[in-house]
Write a structure and sequence with these properties.
Layout: H1 8-31, H2 38-51, E1 55-56, E2 68-72, E3 75-77, E4 92-101, E5 104-113, H3 119-135, H4 145-157, E6 162-163, E7 169-171, E8 178-182, E9 199-202, E10 205-207, E11 213-215, E12 222-224, E13 230-232, E14 235-238, E15 245-246, H5 251-260
Antiparallel strand pairs: 1-4, 2-4, 3-12, 4-5, 6-10, 7-8, 7-9, 9-14, 10-13, 11-12, 14-15
Bound molecules: 2-amino-4-trifluoromethylsulfanyl-butyric acid (MF3) and cobalt (II) ion.
Cobalt (II) ion binds at residues 107, 170, 201, 203, 234.
């Protein structure tokens, strides 16, 4: 396994891709309404991505048919948008989006509640987000990759949640999926040494129930085996010698993170 180190020029392009992706998520997230179909969400997302001069990285990736992965409630990731599935008040909807800007990918996911949602659902979304921030405390040069995995899983499991094992985060850059694989669950080995210039998509997928998942007959949609809710939170992160730079946050999100430190 070899993990690429991005040059200063590449890092600028990754920053630009991440900033655009943050705006795409912000704009699309604001448009979610009860009654929309998951295909409406995909079409709107596709328009927004292209309005920034980007290409949707997921479209046709290994045959995936859409630009936005839309995963509702017990769906973990890779839900395929369809005009038959309408989102309802109380649903939780994970949107996973990748953009390509001048040849560089950025990848990020957010989980949204539609209207009023249960306390169980709201806590799952917030704790999934927080598990990412627990993990990236170790996303620094000199630390080892699996310190991130261990921190994510220790935090999520402290609530009795199941940390998905069959899907992992990944390096990202000129390709959507680069080395290394980034598990979200506890590891025995220490993993690769982190170095400044690595760009990583860190993406905890957390189930309210058990960690087991299965694939639906479309060969894409991953669901929880026990039918429990699942949330997803992902950002593209740049490793530096100091604090990690989270490339796919909006300015509002960044200032909220800083204020909470
Ligand atoms: N964030 C997901 C991943 O890294 C998105 C891939 S969906 C696909 O695997 F459609 F592109 F496969
Ligand atoms: Co990803």
């Amino acid at each position: 396994m070899s993990v690429s180190i991005k040059s200063a020029r590449e890092i600028e392009l990754m920053r630009a891709a991440g900033k655009i992706l943050a705006k795409v998520h912000e704009n699309l997230g604001k448009e979610l309404r009860e009654g929309m179909s998951t295909l409406d969400i995909d079409h709107l997302g596709d328009d927004i991505i292209r309005s920034y001069g980007c290409i949707p990285s997921f479209k046709n990736y290994n045959g995936y048919p859409a630009s936005v992965c839309v995963s509702v409630n017990n769906e973990v990731v890779h839900g395929i948008p369809t005009k038959k599935r309408h989102i309802r008040e109380g649903d939780i909807v994970s949107l996973d989006i990748g953009v390509i800007y001048k040849g560089y990918h950025s990848d990020a996911a957010r989980t949204h509640g539609i209207g009023e949602i249960s306390e169980e659902a709201a806590l799952l979304i917030e704790r999934t987000r927080q598990s990412f921030f627990e993990g990236i405390k170790y996303a620094k040069e000199g630390h080892r990759l699996h310190e991130i995995s261990n921190a994510i899983s220790a935090y999520a499991e402290s609530f009795g949640y199941g940390v998905v094992r069959d899907l992992v985060g990944h390096g990202v850059g000129t390709h959507l999926h680069e080395d290394p694989q980034i598990p979200n669950f506890a590891q025995k080995s220490r993993g690769v040494r982190l170095r400044a210039g690595m760009t990583l998509a860190i993406e905890p997928m957390i189930n309210a129930g058990r960690f087991d998942v299965e694939w639906q007959d479309d060969n894409w949609t991953v669901v929880t085996q026990d039918g429990s809710l699942s949330a997803h939170y992902e950002n593209t992160v740049l490793i530096t010698s100091g604090e990690p730079e989270i490339l796919s946050l909006t300015e509002t999100e960044s200032s909220l993170v800083k204020a909470s430190e």
